[in-house]
Write a structure and sequence with these properties.
It holds the Pfam family Glycos_transf_2. Keywords: Transferase. It is a single chain. The chain has about 260 residues and is an alpha/beta fold. The chain has a single domain, classed as Spore Coat Polysaccharide Biosynthesis Protein SpsA, Chain A (Alpha-Beta Complex), CATH 3.90.550. Helices cover about 35% and strands about 20% of the residues. The protein has eight helices and ten strands. It has helices spanning about 35-40, 60-70, 85-95, 115-120, 185-200, 215-220, 220-235, 240-265, and strands spanning about 1-5, 20-25, 50-55, 75-80, 100, 110, 125-135, 140-145, 170, 200-215. Strands 1, 2, 3, 4, 5, 6, 7, 8, 9 and 10 form a ten-stranded mixed beta sheet that branches.
């Protein structure tokens, strides 16, 4: 089952001299979350946005909410999948834009002019990245993400953790590989590293790009997430480097917890 204006052969490109950004939302039974994400994407001041929604055959009224907005949605599909990364691969295959950004159900752009600001400096870079604000179920701010983006990002930066949130990472479509379905929780880290390895121009937008909904698969399955992250880090950086970096990560986390404890006392 599918719909959206692309099924009527209508293009997402409205302004010729600007790139098209394919924003992909993955959702399953997210009726309480999808509306805020759609509103955030569809309210962007940037003209060339191709909005794609991949629904995993929801059994609640998620699809009804999507259909209400389908005149503004480039393409939506609703069918069973093999998990979130399989669904993300489907979205990637459907995307025809120059750039890719994943904004899943519950997540939002930081502001209505965020995409406009992303491409303001240079509309031809390979990757753009920025900061992320963590929010609760009601959309209230919980502060910036603990891991902050570095001033200069490259593929080696992720040795010390995923310094850039997936929702604040825009990559050129031609550089974006399929997600490795071997990983069930941490495939997004592997994906970002692979994108960074092939990128030549990486721009720090120096803005908040996303409002990220607290909680998720990696939060809910910490043990498996840690194992997957160690395995993929070992693949990219080697055993010695990973052990060293994990000592740094552990020390940094302990320092964060101690500082947080002082501010709450």
């Amino acid at each position: 089952m599918q719909g959206g204006y692309r099924t009527q052969h209508i293009s997402s490109k409205k302004t010729e001299n600007l790139p098209v950004l394919s924003v992909i939302t993955i959702v399953y039974n997210g009726a309480d979350l999808i509306a805020r994400t759609m509103k955030s994407v569809l309210s962007q001041t940037y003209s060339n946005i191709e909005y794609i929604i991949v629904d995993g055959a929801s059994t609640d009224n998620t699809l009804d909410l999507i259909k209400k907005q389908e005149a503004q949605i480039a393409l939506w599909v609703s069918e069973k999948d093999k998990g979130i990364y399989d669904a993300m691969n489907k979205g990637l295959e459907l995307a025809t834009g120059d750039y890719i950004l994943y904004m899943n159900a519950g997540d939002q752009f930081f502001a209505n002019d965020t995409v406009e600001k992303i491409f303001a400096k240079d509309p031809k870079a390979d990757i753009y990245y920025g900061d992320t604000l963590i929010v609760d179920d009601e959309g209230n701010s919980l502060g910036p993400r603990r891991l902050r983006p570095p001033q200069q990002l490259n593929w080696k930066s992720f040795r010390y953790g995923m310094l850039v949130c997936h929702q604040s990472f825009v990559v050129r479509r031609s550089l974006a590989p399929a997600y490795d379905l071997h990983y069930k929780i941490a495939a997004d880290i592997d994906w970002c590293i692979n994108c960074l390895k092939d990128a030549k121009t990486i721009i720090n937008t120096e803005i908040f790009i996303a409002r990220y909904l607290s909680g998720g698969a990696s939060w809910q399955n910490q043990k498996q997430a840690l194992k997957e992250r160690f395995d993929l880090m070992q693949k990219h950086y080697g055993t010695v480097s990973v052990i060293t970096s994990h000592v740094v990560i552990a020390a940094r986390y302990i320092k964060f917890r101690l500082q947080r404890g002082k501010t709450t006392n």
